[in-house]
Amino acid sequence: MESKMINDRILYEDNHLIIVNKLPGELVQGDETGDRTLADDVKEYLKTTYNKPGNVYLGIPHRLDRPTSGIVVYCKTDKALSRMTALFRTSDVKKTYWAIVDRKPEKEEGELVHYITRDAANNKSIASNKERKGSKIAKLSYKVLASSDNYHLLEIDLHTGRHHQIRAQLAALGIHIKGDLKYGAQRSNPDGGICLHARHIAFTHPVKKERIDITADPPKNTLWDYFLGRV
User: Residue 110 in contact with residue 141, Cβ under 8 Å?
Assistant: First the structure.
């Protein structure tokens, strides 16, 4: 059952990489909760599909927050992991997100630049206009793609990769991602996730050197379906 569920959400697979569309609430890798992870399900899929004995290798070159959905890249070889990790670290991976938010930015499109300070005790980040001790610069660009009566769809390109960057930078403007109670949203989503989706990724394959360009549909629900039909 789990293998089939993963099979339906595989966006790309070869001998080196497997790219999966993560659901809200899934863990990319294990944490202190001990909950089953997407990585566990991918390993189960690989073990079953290819009749692999023993432990299946799966490298994790990047993360997505648990409540976020969308594209996750896993590596099937150690060589791919080291090279893919380097690509993420040097920003040679283009990442585009979609976010459903409660307020429209003042401009239809623009760039946000903040200094982000991580609050490890509360697993949160704070974005401010001024540099603070221990802060790191955070940059993203956005544009408004569509609007409904109560919500707006933003497309966001990340230029840096800070902890909770999109969530914190939008919150600094008084804009909240639907369902994101941690950063000021009024109500949670029924699935416990937030309406932040890793929509698109593009990079040069770490081994084959060919261009990889992947797009993932957002989770199936009325609001995402509404916006998907308007872009």
Answer: yes
Place of tokens 């299946």: 56
Please name every residue paired with 127 in a beta bridge, in sequence order, or none if there are none.
116
| Residue 41 · residue 59 · CB < 8 Å | no
What is the CB neighbour count within 10 angstroms for residue 86? 12
Kindly tell me the sign of the dihedral angle through the C-alpha atoms of 73, 77, 80, 84.
positive
Which tokens sit at 25?
């609430």
Q: Are 39 and 2 in contact (CB under 8 A)?
A: no
Residues in the chain: 231
Q: Which of 116, 120, 118, 119 is nearest to 129 (CA)?
A: 116
Distance between CA atoms of residues 128 and 86, nearest Å: 28
Q: Mention every residue, 6+ apart, whose C-beta is less than 8 A from residue 221.
A: 191
Geometric angle at alpha carbon 194, from 110 and 58, rounded to 5°: 100
Dump pLDDT digits (tens) for 9-54: 999 999 999 999 999 999 999 888 889 999 999 999 999 999 998 8
Amino acid present at 141: S
Per-residue pLDDT of 64-101, as tens digits, reads 999 999 999 999 999 999 999 999 998 789 999 999 99
